[in-house]
Amino acid sequence: MVFQVTLSKSGNQFNVEESETVLDAALRTGYVIPYSCRIGSCGSCKARIVSGSIDYGEYEGNILTEVERAQGIALLCQAHPLEDLVVDAREVAVSEEIEIKMLPCRVVRLEQLNHDVMGLSLKLPQNQQFNYLAGQYIDILLRDGRRRSFSIANAPKEGGELELHVRRVPDGFFTNQIFNTMKERDLLRFQGPLGTFFLRQDSDRPILLMAGGTGFAPIKAIVEQAIEKDITRPMHLFWGARTEHDLYLDEMARYWAVQHEHINYTPVLSEVEPENGWSGETGWVHDVLLAHYPSLEQHEVYMSGPPPMIDAAHAAFLEHGLPDEHLYYDSFEFSADVPA
Ligand SMILES: Cc1cc2nc3c(=O)[nH]c(=O)nc-3n(C[C@H](O)[C@H](O)[C@H](O)COP(=O)(O)OP(=O)(O)OC[C@H]3O[C@@H](n4cnc5c(N)ncnc54)[C@H](O)[C@@H]3O)c2cc1C
Ligand code: FES
Fold this sequence. Notes:
Elements lengths: L2 E5 L5 E4 L5 H7 L17 E6 L2 E2 L10 H5 L2 E3 L4 E2 L3 E4 L12 E14 L2 E7 L13 E5 L5 E5 L9 E7 L5 H8 L6 E8 L12 E6 L3 H13 L6 E7 L8 H10 L3 E7 L11 E2 L2 H8 L7 E6 L1 H13 L7 E5 L9
Parallel strand pairs: 1-7, 14-15, 14-18, 15-16, 16-17, 18-19
Antiparallel strand pairs: 1-2, 3-5, 3-7, 4-6, 8-9, 8-13, 9-12, 10-11, 10-13
Helix pairs in contact: 6-7
The chain binds flavin-adenine dinucleotide and FE2/S2 (inorganic) cluster (FES).
The site of FE2/S2 (inorganic) cluster (FES) has 12 residues, from loops.
């Protein structure tokens, strides 16, 4: 059965094919709705079903509460229509032509950035056009059909190289392959670009950026692109990590702040030993951000990194006046291991 979805704000309509989710169908037909993980873990695709009924699909227990379900809220990355729907979802304006593709690529560089982060550079086939927005991510497609998500850590550039920052997950299937057996010239396949984590250029709000660990990757791409495009809105980057070693490109972020008057940078460590002489900020990175900016009503916040950081910061930032529609995030959920 094919069902029709109408987006209530714009009146835009698209069909959802058998077995597709509402989000898949929207993306296939060129409508972009906020989303990130696509596995029902992060909550960024929440929207209200105004009329019609759905199969809610599978999602992590606490990500959609019973109260929200009673209010008609659903996760569009999991929702399958059971009849025609009217959905109250925000649509994201994308100024460039972005097509989600499956592409091969070759590993051209492996560079260990610290004890547990690998910089991986991927080269695309010369005859292939791959457009993306700084901040988006790709899914590496494993041979057995599973997929692993990684943010692109560089702004789009001539020659089409993609840079990833991969943190080794203890006992992680794919990230350990990268550290132990992957070699330059290896071939991979990926799908992308994915996600709606990119700089909103039609806004003049001051920008706060917050990264946890390798959450620095998409933020780096966003800052690089903003510098290239001469966007001079005030930007303050907070980068949280356990120890100084985990701030694997600290010098780069310090350099941005020295070179550009509108860019500020605050590194934050959560595990500081008295003997290592750290004189910077300490604690949880979102607490430090809030100590600098107790009122967020006028700001726009971009954050990426581990799910516990995203969850804690999400709630705290809204309490401090940040309008929900000005909070953009990628939560580094791990894969649900469903075949691609
Ligand atoms: C949108 C998005 C963007 C991402 N971008 C990046 C990025 O730029 N850099 C990056 O390093 N990671 C990123 N991640 C996280 C990354 O996808 C996972 O760390 C990766 O899939 C782990 O693969 P694996 O096969 O090594 O681990 P798996 O074999 O899948 O996992 C092994 C075990 O480790 C645990 N685990 C897996 N991943 C994590 C994790 N991230 N944190 C804590 N425990 C975990 C699981 O419980 C699992 O049982 C991103 C995730 C998403 C959703
Ligand atoms: S829960 Fe739907 S995109 Fe993350």
